[in-house]
Amino acid sequence: MPENRIILHIDMNAFFASVEQQSNPALQGKPVAVIGAAKRTIITTCSYEARAFGVKTGMNTWEARQKCPQLIFVVGNNKKYSYTSKQIIGIMREYTPLVEVFSIDEAFLDVTGSLSLFGSPENIANLIKERIRERFGLTCSVGIAPNKLLAKLASEMQKPDGLTVIAPDQVARVMERLPIGELCGIGAKTQQQLAKFGIRTCGELARFPVEILRKSFGVTGERLHYMGLGVDDAPVVPEEEAEEVKSVGHSTTLDADLAGRSEIRAVLLQLSEMVGRRARKHRVAGRTVTLTVRYPDFTTFSRQASRSTPTNNSDEIYRDAVQILDQLELTQPVRLLGVRITNLSHQAEQLPLFDQERKKALVASAMDHVNDRFGDFSVTFGTLLGKECGAKVISPAWKPEGVRNVDAD
Amino acid sequence: MQRLCESIRVAAIFAPGARLQPVWFEWRRQKHAVTRICYFWKDTLGGAARLHFAVCDDRNLYELRYDTSDQNWTLVGVEEQ
User: Based on the domain organization, do A221 and A285 belong to the same domain?
Assistant: First the structure.
């Protein structure tokens, strides 16, 4: 890895809300909140005009309306956002092949090798900003620094439409008084633990004896020490070099809490089909099936079952999930359900040896062919007929390609 | 936006190298001239690519969708401005 790397972190400003403001000129300059299509919903993101009133991501709609009575709610269009994101990532890849998509609205770029072609990193940042603005009318904040940790920190410093550089000789000065919570990767819990040692700034974290950090946080202790110094060796990993996925899963927050087992089973079937279909598409099969349940009081737990053979057959995943469900005593109605397969094996297309298994695989394959052509759930299980199916939320792990590219409605 | 799903007649320009550009459309026996294409995006339904246009006439905002598989236009939504 080169010693003097130049990393850009590009963060789209209020991405979903800004796309909606561009799509509808009547929303421009107004407080806008993007919400999900579900009946009970929270704010996915909001425009800067709404943020000025104290509206925040994660607030429920009632709370947001209290803060800003004139707030305009727009039901999000995930396909519009994922298309826009893919196009923007395409623009970034014209400046370097080393683009790591961090989420649907954030990416890291290693431009160390691109300077001879495009000039300074500031020039590259400005070119990308200009092209995104020209094509989509959207703004972004860019951070330029010697590593990912500092580049992300820099992009947070000026919003919206910012461009912030942390040069190598400025790192110590920037870090000295910076609150530790400003660093990506230090959450509320770690902050509380560090506060017990009297550590509140990165400067204090860097000076704190690393042995004590190691004792308290294990391997993370050393990483925390380097974070305090502003040191981060993590490379920018483009999608094609990223580690293979370790799980395929879907979860859904239900429109209303469910208590009836038959209703819960219907949701599990839908989730199992989504998991199975995605796993078959990317030729992976899981040896472990996990069921996740969340109650209305947000108590969440998962239970798993291991199989003798890996599967990506929706029916088998469903049966395993139901078996786990049947062993559970549900003490409350259910708010969220999730199904996941892990312990994955990557497999070539191969028909099973036994007749029964072969039939199952052929049916699944025939269904997949029809659904590939006419859309997901065009052919599905009778139990699911008339039900609204499909992913509703863009996962934080969303990627423009591969098994993590979930096409959410 | 009021969601609709009505097949409509659309006049559009297919320019070389450029994206498809709707120019006018007929809806409820009225001709609406597209004064501005506010936003464009693509998605797929199964194997069919669909092009979406958020367009304005001199009064309202509309969402038009062009299905590349059957070459039909659909008015997906309308919002009075």
Answer: no
Nearest CA-CA distance, residue A7 and chain B, Å: 29
Give the DSSP H or E segment for A323: helix A314-326
pLDDT of A84-103, one tens digit each? Answer: 999 999 999 999 999 999 99
Residue A396 lies in a domain: no
Question: Annotated catalytic, A20?
Answer: no
Q: Kindly identify which residue of chain B lies nearest to residue A72, measuring between CA atoms.
A: B1
State whether A281 and A337 are in the same domain.
yes
Inter-chain CB proximity A83 and B46 less than 8 Å: no
pLDDT of A388 over the 80 cut: no
Nearest by Cα to A346 from A316, A397, A312 = A312
CATH, residue A375: 3.30.1490.100
Q: Are A252 and A184 members of one domain?
A: no
Q: What's the whole-model pTM score?
A: 0.88
Residues A248-257: pLDDT tens digits? Answer: 999 888 888 9
Instruction: Name the residue of chain A whose CA is nearest to B62's CA.
Output: A24
Residue A236: inside a domain, yes or no? no
**Chain-centroid distance, C-alpha A161:** 22
- Distances from the Cα of A185 to the Cαs of A189, A223, B51, in angstroms? 11, 10, 39
The 10s digit of each residue's pLDDT in A41-73 is 789 999 999 999 999 998 999 999 999 999 999
Print the domain residue range for A202: 171-229
